[in-house]
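Quick one:
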Amino acid sequence: MRDIEKDLELRENMNKIVLGLSGGMDSATLLGLFLHENLEVHCCSFEYGSTHGLYETKAMNAILAHYEKKFPNKIKHHPINIKNIMSGFSSSLLLNNEKEIPEGFYNDDNMKKTVVPGRNLIFASILAGIAESVGATKISLGIHSGDHHIYPDCRPEFVKALDSVIYLSTDKKVEVISPFLYLDKASILKIGYSLKEPVPYHLTRTCYKNQEDSCGKCGSCLERLEAFKIIGKKDPIKYEVD
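Output:
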């Protein structure tokens, strides 16, 4: 198995990459990072029936529009609808379940209700298929250390196994890289703000709830707010309760 922790080296001598883009902070930062490395980025957005899907999509479209002006001809968008496929899955993060989004920090047990079974495995399989089709040798997910406790498909052992599976299933043509795997959200923010064209975090969407303004109470919101506090910046988005 190759060491995916050396993914900076893996990005040498490549000209395109396939990225899962959600409209959130982490994937938006990855997009900015890859564009600054002069890569052609194939962005895959997934409609899968999530509670916050409408607002994530709006954020994702705004992020794409922002970067398409800054980096013309460097972005390709692949919208993917798998809502019907995931309609029978059980998670509070899916609209069809009609369950309350839990509030509290990510290390609280109730946040496990937001796990969507098989989500990153499904996403990565589609990313790999697109990578083979467009001639890209790498796919990337915005997985970070804050996800490890709750989400089994965000842990290092999963990503390492996923890399091996994708590598073999594509006849050794496609690899998985995850630059933020061991970083927390504050560290990701620092990267985003350090770029020549800082990541437009005011356009991103993090909240899990089905509402226009971010709630500021769910695990995703609390982690985001804490990250901005750590780096000494004010979160530029609007919250239900400021």
